[in-house]
User: What shape does this take?
Amino acid sequence: MGFLPQDVKFDIDLIKKYAKPAPRYTSYPTAQEFTEEFTPQDYKEKLIQSNERKTPLSLYFHIPFCESACYFCGCNVIITRRKESSQPYLKYLYKEMDLVSSYLDKDRKVVQLHWGGGTPNYLENDQIKELFTEIKKRFEFDKNPEISIEIDPRHIDREKIFLLRELGFNRISFGIQDFNPKVQQAVNRIQPEEMIFNVMSWIREADFESVNIDLIYGLPYQTLETFTDTVEKTIKLNPDRIANFNFAYVPWLKRLQRNIDPSTLPPPEEKLEILKMTIDKLTKAGYLFIGMDHFAKPNDELAIAQRNRTLHRNFQGYTTHAEAELIGFGATSISMLYDAYAQNAKTLREYYEPIDRGELPTARGVKLNEDDIIRRDVIMRLMSHFQLYKGEIEEKYGIKFDEYFKPEMERLKELEADELLKLYPDRIDVTPAGRLLIRNIAVNFDVYTLAKKEKRFSQAI
Assistant: This one.
């Protein structure tokens, strides 16, 4: 059956050889293939067609507001302390929900709900209650839905944590990035250690089912020594999941990053040492390497789903609900249907205007053809399970795998020679050394990225 999920091997020579840009594959085709030719009418038609599949729903709500700017951030956010900005935004969310829900069958249950941002806890307590109530009015929830929220620990108190739990949120995520005060100062995110441990104690007291913590390596002034301290403190917090993201310094794409002095960033060699240390410490502390940047305890749903080969990826990262179609609400949010992706307008004005006309605020997207759907399935299985059984793809799509993917299988032979994967007649196994380079393996099935001369993605490691 191949390798155990927790097996991961840090091979510095292979990492250097394959240090090339590659997509993160939260979708296939990637968001780079979205075009404005995909219209609100196209999205409406695809929503209505999706009812024939009777799939459950995963809902995402984007709350774009933040009180201050984090210089490392690559998200679409609105920096403002004027809390009155959020009330009109909520009204438009309700109007968008009215439009979208009118196209969806009422018997399609919501198995997953996620609030992201920005900063969802930017909302006042009464606004949080109101938004949650309005969602429940329009959608039917499954018996045991996964309801999660991202929070900023600097702007939350015990009362708000308990309110979230009472409403029904059962999973929570927050970013630490780094415990070191000098690093925090350099990225404009000051959050003292005592504050973080207090927030975690409230979350545990409120009995959330799962807690995720985000770290970022490669930030200004980070060293192997300082980040070792951050990882050890994170382990003491004892979260269920840990995401350790690679900081991609792209100031030409993300304006906020222009506030960072590139001379303060750790050199590539030290960055790799930091990554190796993080993997070693987290796996020794009992966390399993799920894939990409993610670690989870063995009894966490992500780890269980990976063992059962039911893990999947979408725009929120790894998910246990492969069967659900994702519907996004709010500015810039993305919806993932079986055969189409749709993204909402970016600015508030562009988001509000079509809704005022009674139209969906879709700005761009893409329709998937049969080849896209087959390749997406192959890529997502590799990304999620580190293993692919050819017979499952052949049976599902009526193809002969080795014939359909003849050029791809030839390319994979070079990766097999480097011991990133093992090719068998019936399957492909990613080796422990190949797991850190899974994006470089998956890209071989990506016809769009391979055809591009300019690869506008972050480095795979």
User: Anything to note?
Assistant: Residues 27-326 form a domain with the pyruvate-formate lyase- activating enzyme fold (CATH 3.80.30.20). The chain is about 40% helix and 20% strand.
